[in-house]
Amino acid sequence: MQIQMNEFLFAMILTELEDAVGVENCSTRAIDKVTHSVDYYWLSRMWADRGCRMPEAQYVVCPKDATEVSKVLKIANYYKLPVTTWGAGGGTQGGAIPVCGGIILDTKRMNKIYEVNTEGMYIECGTGAIYKHIEWAANEVGKATMHYPSSLTCSTVGGFLAHRGIGVVSTKYGKIDDMVLKMEVVLPNGDIIETCSAPKHAAGPDLNQIFIGSEGTLGIITKAQIRIFDQPEERRFRGFLFQDMNGAFKASRELLQKFKPSVMRLYDEAETASLIKKIVGVERKGAFMNVAYEGVREMVEVEEKILLETFAKYGAEDLGSEYGEKWWKEKITFFYPGHMMDIPQCFGTMDTIAPYGKIEEIYWAMKEAIETNFPQAKFIAHFSHWYEWGAMVYDRFIVDGKDVPQDPVEALRLHQAIWTCGVRTALAHGGVVNDHHGVGIKLGRLMKEQYGPAMQVFEGIKKQLDPNGIMNPFKLGL
Amino acid sequence: MIMSEKCKQHVDSCRFCWMCHHICPIGNATGQERNTARARALGISLVNRDAMELSEIMDNIYECCTCGACVHDCITGWDPVMFTKETRLQAALEGATPDYINVLIDNCLETGNAYGKTATCETLTAAIKAHADKKDTLLLLGVDAKFMACKQALKAIQVLEKAGVDFSVLENEAPTGAQLDFLIGAANETKEQMAACAKVLDDYKTVVVYDPNDAKAIKQLYKEYGIETKANVVTYTSFVASLLRDGKLEAVNSGKAVVFQDPYQLSRDLEETEEAREIIMSYAVLGEMLLNRAETVWAGNILMAQYKPEVIKLVAERRIFNATSIGADTIVTACVGEYVALNNVEQDKVKIISIEDLILG
Predict the structure, then answer these.
(1) What total of structural domains would you count in chain B?
(2) From the CA of B293, how many Å to the nearest CA of chain A?
(3) Is residue A45 less than 8 Å (CB to CB) from chain B?
(4) Looking at A46-111, which runs of residues are DSSP E strands?
(5) A63 to chain B: nearest residue by CA?
(6) How far is B5 from chain A (nearest CA, A)?
(7) ipTM of the shown complex
(8) pLDDT bracket for residue B1 (50, 70, 90)
């Protein structure tokens, strides 16, 4: 039964939520509702820019631990109120937008660092901790998390887990889903569960991986053990200029069969000419690639030799270490206002992952599809996360502000049309709907196109765990 | 809401930028999403677009401590403190200031301090009277020390006495305008208070400013507002460090391990970080918290505790946690507001002392 909210019921539910998390941690104030209605998703930003209010939750609650989360979920289930989990709002896919109202459950009070364990090499923390804070905790004992996305300072541990985030040194150290040992999760019915004490086992399917990437649709991750690493004795950089991307792909694939660098970033000709020229200062035609390799000094020496020999075989011009070091220093500068795309531009990043046999084809197909169907859009890309078997294209479209309709609904139409065109093209050429930003409400409609009948696996899990459908409705295509 | 073009530009840059999310001492302590620069900018931008009422965001505007951690952290130079203070000013002009802030403003205008105090403790009054004669050097205690932490004010006097400094203390100090600047920004009333204070300071060759908040106002804000002082204005810490250097204070190092809580007014605004360390290292063994010097994390104050006591408690608790996480058992402060805020936390892991405590033993 869907409840009809009225003033009396609203007040009654409020008292129950206040009882669950404390009066001071439960808000119905306009500023809290507005703040939790706009995340990094372009459509929510555009909507606010046009002076419109995004869908808002009726209640904003900030529980301090799994027990309080459990209480909130039991209340929500009883009244059949939607619950949208909010980390720090740095997501780009609208995953944290409370599109159906109800309750926003902000995790940031669950920010306790319970343990820094240098024997087991992990930090146990609440998932509301800002990732930079656990990096600081690791640094205090001479370690590092090695998870350095551009949103390091503005995303929570839970946020990264929710959408399978990734950092710039992923090629060596892995994605966030490789960095979790164990988790505590509150199921939609309020039960508090723990995953296995070790992430690799033969005790059935991996429970961690069922909840990682589930974007708050299957439960709420409240605690996690996150891996930490020794600081590398040495981190070296090398910049290269390839004549074109094809040579870079061949060189990189061969390199990755030999060892794993930490950073590998290949920029297409368009991005080399724009962003790289602006920030790094390279003003040459071709495809710029930045590689970092790190670890024990003797190993780094050997890796450098292998890198130079391998890339030379494919005609790469060695630009030395200066550009790479500058990029490392400036790696977050790219994302500050004034350097980053921003309103009034319409823009998006369709990060697509695919095997080597398909990734370059996907790039060209997407570029053609977008530039042909939307001549007002510019398409640029870089390839920043690499594996032995494939790579990710960080492909962006940018439409100048003058070409973006002022009417918010028309602007939404344009944005949706470009996304649909781009991602469908990627799917048609063997790509996956997304690499590391997640699905949210932005790409939910394309999940069924991605998975076909396989989608029923997710739908079945969802139905079993969340029969009332209260958990982050309309996200992840569920 | 009327807002300068410069401010609008900063608001529109910050409203969709999350990059300083990790650094706000209030946001980190409360875990509230609204306690971020981007949330504040978003609220202001929606008011500017007639999608929210100014009154709906004012509580949040007054939850900012204006410590400037976000400004310092911003690679591209956007300034959330500027638009926060301008919004406070505009709210005052439009009659949208919350009542609990109006009380503090009225107190500032009537008594010179936000607390509405007119008298300090007897011991301090006597100590001040002992320095009533006009000298070349003036010790400016400030309203926090004088009215809310008189023991610390007394110790500040005793340190200078110990060093044999010939100095005056005014029985009726002119308010520096720092509190009004926090409450309503660059209003005429703020500037008038500052100008009146500058005129008093002009009578002295050297003014030693005890409270970093006042030091920031006099050394930085007065210039921004076109107010000049003829006196040589120095911070208390830099003055005491010079006394040590000149041999006027004799230090014995106890070997005790301590950490220092950098006041942001000194470390970020006035770029003074080493003078306090010089003093501390003469008396103790200094360790460093992870976030120190210009990266310091504000640990609370007395003014905001008047209307957000629970928030200030959380802020102070978090900073104490920073100290305990590196095994420190003593925090040395150089700002009376932080000294009071940290000491108001009920805990027995870390001892909170001032630089004066360290010197006087």
Answers:
(1) 3
(2) 16
(3) yes
(4) 59-61, 83-86, 103-106
(5) B31
(6) 17
(7) 0.95
(8) confident
